[in-house]
Amino acid sequence: MIKALIAVRSGSERVLNKNIRPFAGRSLLEYKILQLKRIKAIEGIVVNSNSEEMLTMAKLLGCETVKRDEYYATSKCSMSEVYANMAENFEGDIIVYCNVTNPIIKDSSIEKAIAIYKELNNDAFSVNSVNIIKEFLYLKEKPLNYDPSNQPRSQELPEIKALNFAVNVISKERMIQCKNIVSNNPYFLSISEEESIDIDTPYDFNIAEHLFNKLILNKKCKYF
Q1: CA distances from 21 to 11, 69, 79, 97, 134 (A)
Q2: What is this structure's pTM?
Q3: Could you tell me if residue 223 is inside a domain?
Q4: Segment 21-42 mean pLDDT
Q5: Best CA proximity match to 198, nearest among 113, 127, 99, 110
């Protein structure tokens, strides 16, 4: 059985209450649930949270809910521990893991990720959305992806794939084994720059809300 998994917690540090604060007339959590309910290949939606308010919101929209232990909602807990715990408490075979903080991903991109996972038939152990970045990158004052003495044009930089976590498809069993939503043999699905927007800061929130209103609510682009 293929089900979506939405993970939300209280206590977001950089954007206060970002999952449930007003966003284009609703909230990020509500919009993500409504989007996933449109995806025909998804047979159920599970919302995993430590927040009773978020779980109540999810129940009212017809989702299954899992109350997360507070330890797995703290910054003391590694994401590897969180992923394993969520998978262990998930009733289903295949997990479509979607972050609410990627509100602009198209329905068609989620459908494509699921279709690819089915077609690969375990040749790839997960399907994970990425976007291509071409930037001049440094780590500890040393260049990562180019030679400064022979600097290329930006379009000639290598295509570095950045995980954006907008959509991820993996089996429950493998998510437990890997303690991650990215397996050791992933298939990377490239999505557009707009779709890959992930809300981490107040600036991201404002930009995403502006684009959501422009591209989706005003139907300038055929997202749904």
Answers
A1: 12, 23, 24, 21, 33
A2: 0.92
A3: no
A4: 96
A5: 99
How much is the pLDDT for 214?
A: 87
**CATH assignment at residue 196:** 3.90.550.10
Contacts 24+ apart (CB under 8 A), 209-217: 209/23, 209/24, 211/104, 212/23, 212/24, 212/31, 212/103, 212/104, 213/24, 215/104, 216/24, 216/104, 217/24, 217/25
Q: What are the DSSP calls for 147-180, one per residue? A: -GGGPPPGGGS--EEEEEEEEEEEEHHHHHHHTS
pLDDT at 205 over 70: yes
Q: Domain count of the chain?
A: 1
Confidence of residue 218 (pLDDT cuts 50, 70, 90): low
Arithmetic mean of pLDDT, 130-134: 94
Average pLDDT for residues 142-165, to the nearest whole number?
Answer: 94
pLDDT at 158: 94
Q: Which domain holds residue 103?
A: 2-217
pLDDT at 183 over 80: yes
Q: Is residue 117 part of a domain?
A: yes
- Among residues 134, 136, 190, the alpha carbon closest in space to that of 160 is found at 134
Residue 171 domain flag? yes
**222 found inside a domain:** no
Question: CA-CA distance, 15 to 189, in Å (whole number)?
Answer: 28
